[in-house]
Amino acid sequence: MANETFSAISQPGAFPGLGAQTSAWASYVVAALLLASLAYSRRDKYRGVPDVTPSRPFELTDSRKRKEFLAKSREILAQGSKRYGDQPYKVTAEMGQILVLPPQYVAELKNNPALDLTAFVQKILVHAYLPGFEPFGAAEATVKIIPKYVNKKLGNLALSDIFTDSKDWTEIDAFSILRLASRMSSRIFMGKDICKDPVWFKALLDYISDIGAQRNIISGWPLSLRPIIYRLVPASFRIKRKLQKCRDVLKPHLERRAAIIKDALARGEPNPFDDSIQWYENEVGDGEKDHAVFQIGIFLVAIPNTADTLMQTLHHLALNPEYISVMREEVIRVIGTHGLNKAALQKLDFMDSCLKESVRLRPVLTLYFQRMALQDVTMSNGFTIKKGTVLGMDGTRMMMDEDIYPEPERYNPRRFMEMRKLPSGASKAPMVTVTPDHHAFGHGIHSCPGRFFVTTALKIALAHMVLKYDWKVAEGYEDAKPRVMGMRYLASNVKLQVRRRKEELDLDSLAAQTK
């Protein structure tokens, strides 16, 4: 990454508007500043802490180490955890040096406000301070709105629009599940008209696909250099254009809504809208609003991980079809008796256990408890986490601890269902519970506020899917392994096959009765 940028600024015409000689001098000055900043940024705050990814002699940049971590993060973290056990160690990840702490410190640190997730996300991970990256900075507003407003009653699912009504086997992929998760969540967040607008969905995905690649380029540089690198990379201007496209697509929807609200109020009727667009209006009031930024922010928080969890759960079930029958029987028994409502969904213990087990085997992150230290923090053992430190914990080590999870490599969909029967496990077993041993929704003051909505959405989707469809793994994907890129697991590339079946319960009618 460094080589490409140095090459770009050293080319003739790198600084248009300047003469050739002046442009050349400007290139040299910028290159010198970049080198000086690189050298400054590589100062090690933790010289006494073991390094699992040490530099080689005469190695001037961290480019090699960052690329190795992107490709082999699980192996690098496993090596560090095995070698150094209960002491901190450091690694160079895709965005720089990270202090990796042993998991036993999570209880001590989980509620410390000086260890901030928002600062890590916005400053280190996704550059929310740069033009075009604004949706990544919408997290604080999202955290306010999700627990305050979200109605957990999700409506009818038109699965045939996304899958099939055919009784022949039809292949689907992760994108089909992403479309389903997006439509489910958008129906709640944005209303039925926008959630079905293909132009909005395309503009949204175009922006997100570009922003991910650009984020990775910028993350390869020290924090102090990223605003400079951002301006040197041509793709930055494309990102801003795509964000503006999202605003343009949303604008007529907002104007139409405003007219409907105005007419309703003129007739003395209440505002007919109760969705995240209106919730955002309620929270911001007369302040400056950017609906596209907020809606993309909600998508980033709610959709990709929901879709990925759903795909992983379906993959595990398709590999073990005997459990599809078990889940189907539970849905018929519980929802057939209690209806399709919040109370009934909480009684789907086997489904809940399946979801949690799939996330345990294939979590979202390789590094858990990601934080940035806003000030020095001294732990009970005397070790000091220094201001500005980026830290995390080995997530795989925690999810695969055989003292907590017997036979941790084995898929056991009844694992957490059985845990409910234990006095010490009853409160830990549900999917929505955050514990140090299972970090699907984080832990402490930064645990995910939308986990109740996400779990509800997942259960409703699974209920429809197992009742309305038969499932199996597409040929060639039986042994598909999780894919990792640095601190994250990549979305599944598994393909499944589905065929329509006659469901025993009319879930669509039951859903309509709960509105």
TrEMBL record:
One of its GO terms (molecular function) is oxidoreductase activity, acting on paired donors, with incorporation or reduction of molecular oxygen. It holds the Pfam family p450. Heme binds at residue 448. Keywords: Heme, Iron, Metal-binding, Monooxygenase, Oxidoreductase. SUPFAM superfamilies: Cytochrome P450. It comes from the Eukaryota. InterPro entries: Cyt_P450, Cyt_P450_CS, Cyt_P450_E_grp-IV, Cyt_P450_sf. CDD domains: CYP503A1-like. Belongs to the cytochrome P450 family. This is Ent-kaurene oxidase. It comes from Pyricularia oryzae (strain 70-15 / ATCC MYA-4617 / FGSC 8958) (Rice blast fungus).
